[in-house]
Queue: 4 jobs
Job 1
Amino acid sequence: MNLLDYLATEFAPFDEKPFNPVDSAVLSQFCMVRAEGVVPALRERSSFLDLGTIVENLLSPARSAVRFADALRAELYPSMFTGLDPHRVKENLLALAASPRFRDMRVRDYLSLFDTDRQTQFAAMTFVHRKDFAYVGFRGTDTSFTGWRENFNMAYTAPVPAQEQAARYLQAVAPRAPKRVYVGGHSKGGNLAVYAALKAPPAVQRRIELVYSHDGPGFKAGTFAPADWAPLEGRIHRTVPQDSVVGLLMESHVPPRVVRSTAKGIDQHSVFSWEVAGDDFLYLEGLTDGAQLADAVLTEWLAQFSDEEAAVVVDAFFQAVEASGARDASDLLCGGTKALALVPEAAKNMDPGARATLLAALKPLTEIAARRLAQGVSVLWPGSRAPSQPQAAERSAGA
C-alpha cells in the first residue's frame, strides 16, 4: 500500500484511530497545492510584509475555512499543483475530498510568500479537525530555481528567510488553533516544521503533540544547541526512505526512522513511493549502504568549505544552471543524467572566474568518493541496487 491506497481504504474517524505519521504525510502533500483564492488567507499576513516578501494570496474567500472538496476547481488545475510529482499531488487532493476520514476537515490560514531577490519560497496552511486538533503544514520546495536556491543556502546560512517565516507562522496561528497541535511537512517543509517548533514559545511547545519531518534535511552546524531540542524530546518524528539523500543532509538531533520505498534512488524522496502497513509506514532496520556512503561523502565534502566559500560555490552552480537553459528544477531533476550533464556543459559559457570556482569545488567531491570506495567499502550509489537490502521490520511509530 501507498498513501493513495491508504486514503482509499482507511475510513476510521480520528476519534477511533488517532492521527498518525501517514496522515501527516498525506496532509504534507496537500501543502503542495497552490490554494490562492481557495483556502482563506492568514489574517495576520500583514505582519510578514516587513520581510520584503510578495504576498501571493491577497484574494481571500470570505469564509473562515474550507473543505478539501472546495479545492476541486478544474479551471485552476493547470497551475494548481507544484513540486516534482504534481500529478500525484492532484490525485492526493481528489482522494482527500472523497475520504470519510479527511473530507470534513477544514483548511484555513493559507500563506504563500515568494521573493526572487531574497531567494525565498514559503507556503503554509492549517488543517483543523473540529475542536480536537490542528495540523500546521509547511510546503516543500516547488520547482522554481528560487525555491531550490534557498535550499542550497541552508548549507551556509541560518536562518534562511523561509525558516524565519515558519516560526512566525506557527506563532500566528497557534492562538486560534485547538489546544492540541501537530506540525509537519515533507522535504524542505519538514525542515521548516522542526525549525518552527524549536523556535516556538514554551506555551506553544507544550501544546505540540508531535512534529513530523518526512525526508526533511537537517540544519547548518551550530543552528541549535542540544538544550534547544530538550523541550520537544520524544515528540519529533523523523522519517527517511532507505536510499535517502535529502533527509540525511546537515545536522539533526533526532535519528531517523527508515521507511521502505518502492522507488529507486532520488525518486524515493517522493512520499507517494513509501510503503504503508495499516495505519503506519513499513519501517526497515536501517539505510542502504549506498545511502550511508553518499551521506559520508557529502558531509566530508561540505565540511571543506567555509560559509563564505560555500556561498560562492552555490552562486557559481546556479549560474551554470541558468546557462544550461533549464526552465525550472524539474527540467534537471526529472530529466535524468542527460539533463544534469547540461550543467557542466553550460559551465563553458559562464564567467571564467565562476567556472573556475565551480570546477575547483567539484574536483574534491569526486576525489572523496573515489578514496572511500578504494578503502574497500563495498557499496553502491543510491539509485543502483545495493549488495544487500535492509530487513523489513514492522515496527510501530513509537518503537
Job 2
Amino acid sequence: MNDNPRPLKSQPLSRRRLLQAGSVGALGLNLPTLLQADQKSAFSGSSGSGAKSCIFIHQYGGLSQLDSWDMKPSAPHEIRGPYSPIPTATPGLQVCELMPRLAQMSDRYAVIRSMTHTESIHDRANSMLLAGKATPLSDDPSFGAIVTKLRPATASIPPYIWLQKFGGGSAPPDHTYLTGGNLGMAYAPMLIGERHDDNPASADFRVQAFETNSGVTMKRLEDRWKLSQQMQQLAATGRTHEFESLNLYQQQSFDLLHSDDAKKAFQIEREDPALRDQYGRNPLGQNLLFARRLIEAGVRLVNVVAWTGLKSDEEFVSLETWDMHGNADVGIFENGWNGLPFALPRTDQAVASLLDDLHTRGLLDSTLVVLIGEFGRTPTISKGAKRIGRDHWPQCYSAMIAGAGIQGGAVYGESDSRAAYVKTNPVTLEDFTATLFAAMDINPASGISADGFTVRASSGRPIQALL
C-alpha cells in the first residue's frame, strides 16, 4: 500500500471514488446497513460473469423426511403417517404424494437421504447449517458470506441478498447470517423482508433501498466525501483491513443508487402475472420468483426462508412453517399454516416453478438450488401441546440440491427402516457445504482468513457422486 498518497485536491472525483471513504450514514444514503459489496477475488478463475450463483432455500423449523423425500410405506402407521409415495421420473425414486410437480422433474435434482448431526435445538442447528460446521464459532461467516468473498459479483447490484428474515423463537442470532462474521460487513447480505408481511406477495410491497434522505443532493454528497477523506487521512486506522471492507460496501451502495438495471431487478411487478400465478401468490412462491430475477440480474447468492404464508382465516404466529410439533394449534397433517397439507403443496409448486423457470431461461446449469432444513423430524408421530406432530430429529434427515452440474435423478445415502438413523453414506454439515462450494466451482480448501491459509472455506469433503 502506498504510504504517501496523492493530495486530496489532485484526486479526480468519480462515482466510484466518491464512496471510497466515510460511512454511508454520514453521507446521507438511506440503504439498509446490511448491503455488502463486490471485490476482486484473490483466487484465479473466480471473476467474470461465468461464475455460478446459488438460491438457498431454508425450510425453517425442519421438514419431516418421512413425509417428503424418504417415505417408509411398509412401516407401522405411527411411523409412516397418512401419505402415500408416488413414483418420480427417476426409476426407483418415490416421494410424497403432496409433491407431484417435483416428482415429474426428478431428473433435475438430487436427493440426499443421509444428512446427520446431533443438535436438536433450532437456533443452534440453524447456526450450524449457516456456517456449515458442527461446532461453529460465534463469528464464523455464513456460507453466503464466504461465497461472496470468493466469488464476487460484477454487476452494480448487491452480490448477496437475504429474502425474509427468520422470525419466531427458533431463529438463530442475527449475527450468524445478517453480518459477514469475521470477514466483515462487506460480505453481509442485503436484507429484504424484516416483517412477515414484507414480501412480494403483499400488495404494498416495495424495496426501499433506492431512496436517499430528503434534501441530500450530489453536491452535498461530494462535500461530505471530501470532509470524510480529510479526516481519514489523519486517522491511524484509515487504511486497515476493516476500512477496505467498508469501502467495498460503500462503493456498492453508491453504484446501486445509480443503476437502472438493479432497480429493474427489484421490481417484481414487471413479471407476467401468469408467471407469478405459476409460482404461487404466497410468500415462498413470490420470493422464489424474486430470487430468480435477482440471480438473472447478477446477484451471486440469494437466501430464501421457506415461509409459505397463512390461510385467509389465520392470524400470524411465526415464520416457523416446518416446525410441526402440533404445538401451534395446527397438527402436522392438518390443513393450516403449520401443517403439511398446506405447506408442502405450496413448496412443491414454488420450487418446481423455479427449477422450470431457470431451465427455460438457460440458468439452471449455472445456478445451484438448495432446499434443506436445520434437521428432520422424529420417526414416531406423537401428541404435541395441542395437536399431533413430529418432534426434532437431527440424526437422519433429507435435502434436495439441483442445478450447477449436480447429477439429476441421483439419490445419495440411505436411512434405516424408520428413517431414524443413517444406514449408508452419512453426510455431515461440513461435507454438505463442501459439496455446495464444489458445485459452484469454489475450492472448499480456499483460504478466507487475512493470511490466506489459516482458515479454509470448508473442512469437509465434496460428495463426488453428486457432482
Job 3
Amino acid sequence: MERTVSPSVRPARFIDVHVIQSVPFANLNRDDTNSVKTVRYGNAQRTRVSSQSWKRATRQKFQEEIGERALRTRRIGERVTRELEERGWPKPLARRAGAHVAAGSSIKFELAKEKPTEKNGADDGVAKKDARAVVPNKVLTNALVYVPETAVRQLAGIAEEHREELESAKDIKKASDKSVLPQATIDGVLKARNGVINLFGRMLAEVDDAGVDGAVQVAHALTTHETDVEFDYFSAVDDLTQEWNDATGSGHMGHGQYSAGTFYRFATIDLPELASNIGDDIESIRELTGAFLAAFVESLPQAKKNSTAPHTIPGVIHLAVRSDRPLSFAAAFEKPVASTRGAGFEAPSVDQMTKYAGAANKMLGNGRLLASGWVSVGHDDLENLGEQYEGISDLVEAVLRDALGEKRGEVTA
C-alpha cells in the first residue's frame, strides 16, 4: 500500500471502502408500495438503496466467507421445537418445550395468532368469535433475538436437561404464563456471540449485557447523478387461451417500478471497536475484516433478481486506512454528475470522486491517511486513490497487512 506517513506515529483505526458501481434496469430495494427508493440530494432525485438492504446482502455473503451464521428471529421457540423433533421428541412435547424456551427469557412475548382450523384445535365457537385465534405453544418474542445459529442447539440442550419439568408443565396459553425453565440460563445463551455479531453488532436491550456495538458502518447507496423512475408494463400469457384461440386478452397484467444508474457506495470498519468485541486476537480481526471487505464490494441486494438479473461488479473499488476518523466521498456528488453524449455516468463519477479524494485529503492533512489503494475495470491513472492492484484479493490483502502492522512487525489492535 502507498504510505503518506510513518504508521508508527498514528495507528490504524478505520478502513474505509468506496465503491463506484453501475447497475442496469433494476429495483434492488423496494419500499412498502413496491416502489423504487429515492432521495433528493443536491436538489436532484437520486435512486437509493438503503443501508439495511445492502448490509443484509453483505452479511449473507460474509457468513458464507467465514462459515458461521447468525439467526435473527422472533420465532426462536419454533426453531428449538424443530431441533427437538429432529432429536426424536414427541411433537406435542417439543412444541411445549419450544414455547417454554421462548417464554423463559427476559424478553416479553406474545402468542401467535392463526386462522382457526380443526388442525390447530379451534372449535366453531372460537371461529365465529374471532377470525384469528391464539395458538397455544406458538410463542413470539416481542423483540428479534440475534444469536449464533449454534445457540439453537444450546437452547435445545436446556430443554433436554429439564425434560421432566417440561413433561409435567402446563402449555403456554397466554402472555402471563411462566416458563419452568431457568431464565438466567436462557439469557446466557441469548448473549452468545460469533464473528457475525461481533462485526455487525446487536441491539437487544431486553437482556442485560446482550448488546454489541457494531464495528461496521454502512451508508445508503445513492446514484451519483439524477435519475428517473420508470414504469414497466407487463402481461402474462395464458398458454391455453393462446393455443385454443377462443378468447382475447392476457392471463394477467401489471406494472412495476425500476431505475438504472451509477451508485456511490461507502462503508467503514472500526478496528479498535472490533478488537474490543473479540479481544486481543489479531488472526480473528484479520479474518473478519478481510471477509467483510470482500463481501461488501461483491454483494448485491437480490430484489427482483429473477426479472432483472442486475449482476454487475464495481467499476472502481478504493480502500483507505485512516488514523482518526472515517471519510465518506458522498459530498463529491452533491452536484449531480453530468454525462456528455455517449459517455455514460461511470467515467465522470470516477473522475469526480478521484478529484474530491485528493482535495479532501489535502484539506484534512495527508498524515491522517496511512495507506490507500484501488482496483478497477477500465479506469487508469487514479493517482489520488493510492496504489493500483490487479485484483480484489490483492487489494484486500495489502490493506490488511498495512492496517494490522504486519509489514512493520507491530499490531495496532
Job 4
Amino acid sequence: MPSVVQGNAGDIALVKQGMVAEHVETESLYRKLTFRLIPFLFVCWVINYIDRVNIGFAKIPLSKDLGLSDAAYGFGVGIFFVGYILFEVPSNVLMERIGARQTITRIMVLWGVISCSLAFITSPMQFYIARMLLGAAEAGFYPGIILYLTYWFPSGRRARITSRFLLAIAVSGIVGGPVSGWILHNMVGTLGLRNWQWLFLLEGMPAIIAGIIAYFYLDNGPADARWLSEYEREIITRNLMMDESEKSQGHGHRFVHLLRDPRVYLVILGYTTVPLIGTVLNYWTATIIRQSGIGNIWHIGLLSAIPFVVGATAMLINAWHSDRTLERRWHYFFATFVGAVGCVLLTYFSDQWVMAIACLCLIGVAYFCGTGTFWTIPPAYFNGAAAATGIAMISSLGQFGSLLAPMLLGWLKTHTNSISGGLYVIAAISVLGGAAIALGVPRHALRERRLE
C-alpha cells in the first residue's frame, strides 16, 4: 500500500514538474514575442502620433503665416478624421486579406509623404486638403495594430501588451513636445524655410523610413515567423484557440451582423469618450499652457510632456490591475470620470499655469487609462473574423468625437475667447461614455481566459 501511495505521489510530482516547465517555456516565449514585436511597433506608433498631433505645436506660427483663426485651425484638425473614418474599416478588412506587413508599410509610407508635404502648404484650403489626406493615409494603422496583436497574444496578456504599445502615445508627448518646441525655437529661417516647415519635414521623414523597414521586419502572423520554432507556434495557436472557445458564439462574422447588434453601439458610444479627451490633450495642450502664462515656445514644449508622463504611469498601474482582476468595464469608467473632473476643473484654473497643468494631468490619466483598458474589450467581445471588422468599425465611428470636438473648441475660442463651454460638453460625454461601458456591457459578454 505505501508503495502505491509513493508511486502516485511520484506521478503527481512529475506532472507538477511538467506543468512548471511548460509555464516557464510559455513565459519565455511571450517575452520573446514582446521583445520582437513591441519595440518596433512602439517606435512606429511614436512616429505616427507625433505626425498626427505636431499641428498643435505648429499652430502658433502656422496660423500667423496662413491667416488661420482658431475656428479655421479647429476645422483643419477635425477634418483629419473625415478621411480617417472613411478608410478605417476598409483598411482593416484589406489587412485580413493581404496581411499586416504590406498594410503597415503602405500606411506608413503614405502618411510620411503627406506629412512632409504639409511643409509646402500656402493657404487654408491646402491645409484642409492635406489634413484630410493625412487622415485617409493613417486610417487603419491603430486598429490594424490592435488587430495584429490579437494574432500573437491571448486575452489574459492583452491589457499589459496593449498598454506597453500605447506607452508610445506618452513617449510621443514626452519626446514630441520638447523636440517640436526645439525645432520651432531654433530653426527659424534656416535654409530659407520657416520653422513650422522644418517641423513637418523632420518629423515626417521617419515614417517613410520605418514603413520600408516594416516590410522586411514584420511577419503577417505566427505561421510566417521563421524566428519561431514549430513548438512555439503550437503554443501560440493553442492559447489563441482556447481564447476563441471562451467567447460567445453569437457575434456574426459579417458586417451586417455587427450593425444589428445593439451592444456594439454602446461600445462605440463608450469609445467616443477617448478621442474627445484626446482632442484636449493632443491639440490644445500647447495653447492652454500658453494662455496660462507661459510665453516661451521651448518651455511650452517641455511643460507639455508632464501630462503624458503622469498619464503613462497611471496607465501601467491601471492595466496591471485590470489584467490581474480580468475586470475591464469599471476600470474604464474610472478613467472617464477622472477625465471629466479634469475638464471641469480646467475651466476654473485656465489662467494659473501650475493648476492648468495639474488639470491636464488628470485628462492625461483619463486618456491613457481609458485607451489602454478599452482596447481589451472589443477583442474579448468579438470572435473570429468579426474581430477585424468590429475593431475597425468601433475605432472608425468612435472618431466622430475627434471630428466634431476640435471644430467646437476652435469655434468657441474664436467667438468667446474661451473653450470652457466645450470642456463642459466633453466632461458630460465622458461620464456618459464610461457608464455605457460599465452598465451597458455585461461582464459575461466579455469572454476572457485567466492565465494559469
